[in-house]
From TrEMBL:
Its main location: cytoplasm. It is found in: Cytoplasm. One of its GO terms (biological process) is nucleotide metabolic process. It holds the Pfam family UMPH-1. Keywords: Cytoplasm, Hydrolase, Magnesium, Metal-binding, Nucleotide metabolism, Nucleotide-binding. Signal peptide: none annotated. It comes from the Eukaryota. Belongs to the pyrimidine 5'-nucleotidase family. GO terms for cellular component: cytoplasm. Specifically hydrolyzes 7-methylguanosine monophosphate (m(7)GMP) to 7-methylguanosine and inorganic phosphate. The specific activity for m(7)GMP may protect cells against undesired salvage of m(7)GMP and its incorporation into nucleic acids. Also has weak activity for CMP. UMP and purine nucleotides are poor substrates. It catalyses: CMP + H2O = cytidine + phosphate; a ribonucleoside 5'-phosphate + H2O = a ribonucleoside + phosphate; N(7)-methyl-GMP + H2O = N(7)-methylguanosine + phosphate. This is 5'-nucleotidase. It comes from Takifugu rubripes (Japanese pufferfish). Monomer.
Amino acid sequence: MIPEFSKPSVFMRDPQKVQKIMQSMVKAGFNTLQVISDFDMTLTRFAYNGKRCPTCHNIMDNSKLISSEGRAKLKELLDTYYPIEIDSSLSVEEKLPLMVEWWTKAHDLLIQQAIKKDHLAVMVNESDAKLRDGFQLFFDHLHKHNVPLLIFSAGVGDILEEVIRQAGVFHPNVKVFSNYMDFDEAGVLRAFKGELIHVYNKREGAMLNTGHFQELRARPNVLLLGDSLGDLNMADGVQDMQNILKIGFLNDKVEERKQAYLDSYDIVLVKDETMEVPNAILLYLT
Ligand code: TMP
Ligand code: MG
């Protein structure tokens, strides 16, 4: 069907189901599609030259503009809670309170660091954050064909917007649901706005934004991209959904998590740092 599906990184539990969904989407037309994507470790790379790439939070955590004491504390949080986030022996119910704890502690530390709005662009520019290879085609193609792209992230909205702005792909068809910073009149971080979004409450986040999905009700076909099992809930607000094709990037702890990913994502991309497969699907659907 698609030559990219024979890449060694591509796994599917039910290739026939994938084929059926795609045929149905082709029939409905590209103008009935909406794309919903996670940001960290989905649109951005997990690793580059064997080194981990930063998430939105890590872009700030690693910055020289943060005190070394603050950096050490944020690193300690990451070392404590990231293993819990990806632990397949714990249920989502068990992880939930711990994720809230992680986000709350991290945001408190960032507020203590009195981060300046003016510094965000420099932090992003000096970071090792990288969008996946092929990101340009992905963003530009969706823009060219007026397909709405919702970036739904438990990261930090101000940072992710800056990443895509600096990459030249923050097009008007892109909408972001994320955690946004609240700055005082002097441009110093004082809080985070609205309801907290963490990796395992994206369903609640979707429900707070019914207006967006209402506007897109003429687009009942969804391409979903994520890297966490929590990302599967990003499309919970979509109205009158007809077809959904779910692509999951499995970046870490592959053997432990592969079966769970195969059971819930239609296509699983194992340690694939590129947008080749999503791009090939978009071209096929166009
Ligand atoms: P995402 O929804 O765009 O993937 O963003 C969430 C990721 O952010 C999640 O995988 C964990 C990560 N994270 C950090 O790296 N540092 C932090 O301090 C926090 C709270 C989250
Ligand atoms: Mg992610």
